[in-house]
Amino acid sequence: MPSSSFLTIVSKCSVNPETKSTIGNLKLSVSDLPMLSCHYIQKGLLFTRPHPLIPIDSLLSLLKRGLSQTLTHFPALAGRLTTDSDGFVHVACNDAGVDFIHANAGVVSIRDILSPTDVPDSVKEFFALDGTVSFEGHFKPILAVQVTELADGLFIGCAVNHSVTDGTSFWNFFNTFAELSRGAKSISRQPDLHRNYFKDSSAVIRFPNGCPKVTFDEHAPIRERIFRFSREAIQKLKSRANSPLKKRIDHGFPDAAAEIMGKQSNDCWKNNDGENQNPNGNITSVLEKWLRNAVSKHQGLIFETETETEVVDLTVEISSFQSLCAQLWRSITRARKLAPSKMATFRMAVNCRQRIEPRVDPYYFGNAIQSIPTVASAGDILSRDLRWCAVELNRNVVAHDDAKVRGCVEDWEKNPRCFPLGNFDGASITMGSSPRFPMYDNDFGWGRPLAIRSGRANKFDGKISAFPGREGPGSVDLEVCLSPETMAGLENDSEFMQYVSVY
Q: Is residue 440 part of a domain?
């Protein structure tokens, strides 16, 4: 059963939970329903070849048994979507089973996957349910696992319905699958199936034309590349975004502070006795003292110029990831050559499990995410410094508290709709996934993964996914999808590329 010039589907079967489910139907939440128009999540792991003395059939049997045991704890993944007479969508935990596929791509090596600058198209063939929209879970499996043999390795790819899981739930499933496959007698992170993320909503999404369609052009040309950032490089970015006060003044930030110093240097300061002071003497120390006092009082700084009043908040601590996102925002905006007046959006998915009151279990199974947009003009993004961009991102993330989450839900319930993925105005970035997800904790019994890769699902110009770096805590990999022209511009952006690790 050939499926491409280099990959062959060897076998396909259905795997069912080891123990039958008794929980019945699980109603999709206000965070699940917007994902019905999204592709299935496609994420997978690249491994070295297991011990050569282990026959592939034995390995596949081990993985099927581990998957069956895992489905007992994640019964929704073995079910199907169903819509009742009132229009409410549920996951019927009916043990219908998941697809398990064995494929062979013996002409592809680990080096073929990791060495090219761009992610090779061959990786896209390592996932099942390609192009499937989550609404199709009504008549297709909610989960499909594909195990692909390579010349010198193995790839385990999972495709799962996005209206049933978010990234947190997905990687908890993947971790549990690995844990049980390597022989664990119990699981370390039991999923919470109570569906208590938010109130029981009466909102219904209607699809007059049947299955919803994806909201972006799936065939638009894009380049996909993995940019790796070491812990040291990210710490440099963080230091730049949180640079000491004196260093910020010495390097011309804020510009208004420099202007104040410049104006005052033309006039002699007077001491308490009314005597003139050297303008190049203690003026800097006086200004620095003033700034430090403002910071110590947790105040933003207000600089008045002839044309504007600017508030510069020097009290915000910028995280490593926010520093990286700010740099990405600046560099992609520059690469796109946007007009200064063009408004650019950086959209970031956030986990709401610990943002609402009462908090829900960290292993709540389902979607518990919302998207936070930060908007600024291209002129501001490029004319101001890294910290300004980072503070803008930080402000919106910090503000997304219980009240904000509930406000977004109330707004959605007034107009129930699917989440519009895409770059509709040519100036948007969408950040997904998270470097905090335990992707490299997936040891099936023969070692940690070599890399994380994803399929074609939900990719468009401006879609970014953040993965932990394999080098250890603090390192980050960014999977960046951009138009060919924008990618070329990003690769020529020295401000960005100075932080990228070269392997």
A: no
